[in-house]
Amino acid sequence: MTYSLRLPYAHLIYAKIIFAAIEAQSAPDPPRGNRRMARFVVRSAAPGRAVGPGVGRRDGVGVRDAVRGTRCGARCGAWTPIARRPAYPRRHGCARAHGSGGPVGSSGALTRSVRRLLGRPGTVAPTSLRPLVRRAAERESALRELSDARLRAAADALRTRAAAGAWDDDALVELCALGREAGYRTLGERAFDVQLLGVLSLLRGTVVEMATGEGKTLVGALAAAGFAMQGRRVHVLSVNDYLARRDAEWMRPIYELLGVRVAHVTQDATHAQRRTAYAQDVVHVAVGEVGFDTLRDRLRTDATELVLPEPDVAIVDEADAVLIDEARIPLVLAGGVASGPDEAEAARVVADLVEGRHYEAETDGMTVHLTDAGVSAVERALGVDNLFALGMDTRLSQVNVALYASVLLRRDVDYLVREGRISLVDANRGRVAQRQRWPDGLHAAVEAKEGLVAGPRGEVLDQMIVQDLIGGYPTVAGMTGTAVIVAEQLREFYRLETGDLPTNLPCVRIDEPDRLYDGEQSRDAALIDLIERTHATGRPILVGTRDVAKSEQIGAALRESGLRCAVLNARDDSREAAIIADAGGIGAITVSTQMAGRGTDIRLGGIDGADHERVAELGGLLVVGVGRYPTRRLDDQLRGRAGRQGDPGTSVFLTSLDDESITRHAFDPPPRPTRVEADGRIRDASVRRWVEQAQRVAEGALLEGHRTTWRYNRQLRLQREEVLELRHRVLHGDEAARVLADLRPERWAELLDAVGESVLAEAARQLFLYELDEAWSEHLARTADLREGIHLRALGRQNPIDAFHAETQRAFVPLISRARTAAADRLATAHITESGLDTERSDIQRPSSTWTYMIHDQPFASMEDPFLTTIAKRVRAGAGED
Questions:
Q1: Rounded distance, CA 431 to CA 242, Å?
Q2: How far apart are CA 418 and CA 568, in angstroms?
């Protein structure tokens, strides 16, 4: 649903002009020397009262008479007139995604109003819900007098009321009042008004942005209870098992007081435990786990073994991580014991190659290819005459994949080696990516590179992407600390609307401008110096890094300087909660990889808050980012660790020109710095803009990777729906018996007389399901092989995605008819007795074991894009030489 107003055409054009003017005024500051010429005059109707940007003057005349202000330090460009800034010291004062709901300048408010008027993504406002929250507050004193039993009875009455179809504004008011009272009685947590706004927003199917520390867990629990009281089944989806278990147990007293049954599902749950859990009103579960259960249910051969009911309501915690980051990684169910080709020999050959002579890697770190000398060296090592000869495609693929694994995938950055296995590192959350792997060939190549025993390999039985999983829920809502910045993607891919909520207390965090250095060495030296000076005051420090290797390097440098620190990364995240909980204590230094999805607040003064006031007087938590992340959203998540619940805090990012995230995505070399200080710090605004442009390019690449995954999967999703519809009729009805009796009437009649109708019908069901599942698995394998080389179609002026869809559809057309025929042929030779189908004698061999994982098939976004980019660069270079 889009919350917008329809305007007459002329008014719409006028609104767009106003919006463009406001956006122009909110642009980042120009270079220092041009600031006078570029500054707008913000006039006021009365002294000390700003009324917003009117017709601005650019000549600088009258600036002293105007209401002056400051720019937001988090690079959003929001302008806060000083006359409107509150009296709190060191207040951030910006209500954008990186800050929160502190008072802001009138231009920011007008910008949001115009954006909302135009129906822009991320502009859903809770304005209409405020009267309901005020009415809920009026019920508080009356509910406080009730006993627990009478409060439960009031909740039961609300449930009865919903069953009668009377779920209206009065019911919402009662739900908020009951939820607030239940939270206060059971956990000592009285929901703030802004939290109740969040509950109501979730109930209307919105993704809400709530700053770190604002109590998203309580909001999600009350919204889940509200849906459950309406008789709906609710899945609260999180990013990992830890949060699913923790939130279910933490919020259980609230659920039980309101008469709502709750459970959680984790990776180690048994089949029986899963069935029991999914039968409850509210289930807390990791998104990957419910996805894997969906895949398993798709291959059940007995309807009584299904564990999942029909999807109904999904409330997504850390919505941006689940809906955006996880959406690029397909979930896979695999089985069988098929052994693949040996990659060890290819890894040994590649290990002897020399960069620059035998292979060349692009500067963006995304593409590598053999030179002519490299091809000759590989041919000699393998003892072949022509690596590109007919029939050598498998060996050539092994060499290319081994080269890719050897050169581009880095240990302690892209993966870890733990307990003799390769563990992928989740770049978005800085922890081990549970049950994630690359495609079989690439994963095996990395294992061979590290000298490890190859892990299990087998055929893919089924797969899906998170986007398709979420699309199966009729109602979806979500919450996260950074939703507005991905509002366009949430609308594009999920048709979800987004809005932000104000904080309970104004945000006073200071987001300083980035400190840019000419190289990694000077940046790291400045980092250690900053930490030493800050630590001397006793102020706690959180240092955020992009990868494991960098976090350990900084930790070692701090220890060499005599500073004790705690390092939290994917190598050992077992002490995660304890480390984060103490990160706000006096003198604490914490070095951590990405903080998204950590699920633990950093309280000033330590876990018990004993030194809260002392830390607050020191300025609160100092958050230091070492290099920018690929998206501003991840930057903002790190910043948000400081300044929770009105506490003071500061954030600053230290970047350098050779940061990988910058060099990988920058189109052009950086401008030559003209203002470089002795410590290597660069003051040039043009260089800072170059860094910001590189980050925007990185964001665009990630978005395109998401679109690419969705586009390739679109045709497969439609085909899978057709197969699943047939499979449902076979599993729950007499489709198999009807089809096989029609195709093999004589054999059917013979078996009917011998074993009876019920036994034969069940045997027919098993035969049909087996052939249908085999056909689908073969189709997935065929499409996977097709996608490996489909990007080459671009050289023939074909759209690779269109070509993929055409080829995939051509392969799918005969699939169902082939499955029917194969099932009928197998019926002719099947061994069926009164005891049923003898699967062993009938040669029906389903996988003896299955395993699930998320296949990270785009470790560097889209694999074909770097290939084509390399060709384009070579073409341009050749044209330049001519």
A1: 13
A2: 16
Strands 681-682 and 368-370: unpaired
Cβ atoms of 671 and 686 closer than 8 Å: yes
The β-bridge partners of 317 are 479
Output the pLDDT for position 38: 32
Sort 687 into a burial class: Cβ within 10 Å, 0-12 / 13-18 / 19+. Answer: buried
- β-strands 649-656, 510-511: how paired? parallel
3-state secondary structure of 115: helix
CB proximity list for 106: less than 8 A, separation 6 or greater: 50, 51, 52, 53, 81, 84
CA–CA separation, 695 vs 662, rounded Å?
Answer: 7
The structure tokens listed for 472 are 């199966």
Phi and psi angles of residue 337, each rounded to the nearest 5 degrees, phi first = -130, 25
Provide long-range contacts, Cβ within 8 A and 24+ apart, for 418-424. Answer: 418/571, 420/452, 420/453, 421/452, 421/455, 422/446, 422/447, 422/450, 422/452, 422/455, 423/570, 424/856
User: Residue 572: what residue type?
Assistant: D
608 Cβ contact partners less than 8 Å away, ≥ 6 residues apart: none
Average pLDDT over residues 185-200: 96
Strands 206-209 and 79-81, by their bridges, are unpaired
pTM: 0.77
Q: Which segments within 619-680 are labelled E, that is strand? A: 621-626, 649-656
φ, ψ of residue 80 to 5 degrees: the values are: -115, 105
Q: Are 635 and 98 in contact (CB under 8 A)?
A: yes
Classify 460 as helix, strand or coil: strand
Give the mean pLDDT of the chain: 80
Q: Which residues pair with 566 in a beta bridge?
A: 590
Q: From start to end of 198-347, where are the E strands?
A: 206-209, 234-238, 262-265, 282-286, 313-317, 331-335
For 274-283, give one letter per residue: b (16+ CB within 10 A) or e. bbebbebbbb
Lowest-confidence pick of 47-56, 230-239, 461-470:
47-56
| The pLDDT of residue 235 | 98
Instruction: Return the pLDDT at 665.
Output: 80
Q: Which two tokens stand for residue 503?
A: 């904080």
Flag the least confident range among 77-81, 206-210, 443-447, 705-709: 77-81
Q: Say what the pLDDT of residue 872 is.
A: 44
Q: Which residues contact 289 (CB under 8 A, 6 or more apart)?
A: 241, 244, 265, 266, 267
CB atoms within 10 A of CB 38: 14
Structure confidence at residue 430 as a pLDDT band (50, 70, 90): low
Token duo for residue 328: 């690029």
At 404-423, the pLDDT tens digits run: 788 877 787 777 787 777 77
Judged on CB neighbours under 10 Å (0-12, 13-18, 19+), 537 is exposed
* Cα–Cα separations (whole angstroms), residue 346 to 341, 399, 404, 441, 446: 10, 5, 11, 11, 11
In percent, how much of the chain has pLDDT > 90? 45
